[in-house]
Amino acid sequence: RPGRKARVVRISPVCQGLQRRRLMDLGIVPGTVVEAQMAAMGGDPVAYLVRGALIALRREQAELIQVDPLEEGETPEGTAGANAGGDQAAARREAS
After folding, report:
1. Which of the listed CATH numbers 2.70.70.10, 3.20.20.70, 2.60.120.430, 2.30.30.90 matches domain 5-73?
2. Of 6, 17, 40, 62, whose CA is between 20 and 30 Å from 87?
3. Can you give the pTM of this predicted structure?
4. What integer pLDDT is reported at residue 75 of this predicted model?
5. For 51-61, how does the pLDDT look when each residue is reduced to its tens digit (9 = 90+)?
């Protein structure tokens, strides 16, 4: 669904060779945040925003990628809010 974000956990071990390499070359690696942008009329393929690039994946390709959905408001760093964690970084700088 457009607007939904998720963090890549892994590419299925079933995905091998050139197909695996293509996904990795597109930035689909563990820890990467992907966001669904738009889908074709029939729902396949879907365009995803990955590391600033818009890529299209067919359903059978996307099913090879295990992801953890991000909750609404959760940032890619895993915290809520626009500046979450900033105060912790400032505290670490002051302590040193």
Report:
1. 2.30.30.90
2. 6
3. 0.72
4. 61
5. 999 999 999 99
